[in-house]
Structure formats: C-alpha cells, structure tokens
Amino acid sequence: MKILLVSDNHGDQEILDQLASRYHDQVDLMLHLGDSEAKADNLIWSLMDTVKGNMDFESMPTILNYQLTEHCQLTITHGHLYNVNRHLDDLLALAKIEGSQIVAYGHTHIMDYQEINGITVVNPGSISRPRGSYPMGSFAILELAGDQVKGVTFYNRDFEVIVEK
C-alpha cells in the first residue's frame, strides 16, 4: 500500500492539482495534512482527504483515522494542536489514544521520519514553504508491506527523490 502525504501548500492550488494528476492511479490514498488554505468545497478534496490546519478557516476535521490493515491504523492531524514545534510527546499520546501505529503531521514545514516507541511518525515537510535544511518544497510517499511500514520516500516539487528511508 502506498500513501501520498502532502502539507502546508498555503494557497498553492497548482501543486495540489499536479500531485493529484500525477499520482491518483499510483497510490492508494492521498492525504493532505493541513494549511491548504483551500475552501471545503474545492474539487481537490474529491481526490484527497484533508485535516484542518491553523491557517484553514473552513469546517474540516482536525484528526482523521485510517484503518489500513487489520493491525495497522494511521492518524493524521496538522499538529498545531499538539505542540509539534516544541516536541512530539503530545502527538505520540494522540497516536496511542487513537490506537494508531502511524501518525502523520504537518505544521513545522520540516521533513521528518522517525520510529518512536513503536510508532512511526512522518512529516512530509511543506510543499510550498519549506523550512529546515532542504530549500525546496517536499511531499512524501509512505509505503506499507502488510501491517508494517516498509519505508518513506521524500520528493521535491519536481517529483525527484530527495531521500528514501
């Protein structure tokens, strides 16, 4: 199973359209982790699910859960409500409360992939306003093999591989 994760495009509709066009038949799920600044009735949401970020003013959920396999659940949230700029403790607590083995978030605009206490934590970075050591926008494709995370590949806006983990 492959899951495209994108976050923090901050009004850049074109990149979301490009991602949807390029990957809609290559991945099983396309998920936006907030701060799209797109309206709730935007057609892009027929192709990808989204959660509400701190810059989104439409009525959207702040958390979504996906039962990927019998023993593997994914929780997505933007992260601003869980203090992700300072630490991941609250995000990990959310994953545990939700019963998830994977949690994906945005908000920091920095790519991240970690295994912490049996929970896979992923941040695709910002597709339009990156921070950290990588100067171009990024998104990620998370791959599962059965109930296990096989790895994550981070890509830039030109769809070139940045790093595989």
UniProtKB/TrEMBL annotation:
Alphabetical list of Gene3D superfamilies matching this protein: 3.60.21.10
Enzyme Commission number, as recorded: 3.1.4.-
Keyword terms, alphabetized: Metal-binding
Enzyme class: hydrolase
Entry cofactors: a divalent metal cation
Protein's UniProt keywords contain Metal-binding: yes
Taxonomic superkingdom: Bacteria
Family of the protein in this entry: Belongs to the metallophosphoesterase superfamily. YfcE family.
Protein's name in the database: Phosphoesterase
Organism, scientific name: Aerococcus urinaehominis
Phylogenetic placement of the source organism: Bacteria, Bacillati, Bacillota, Bacilli, Lactobacillales
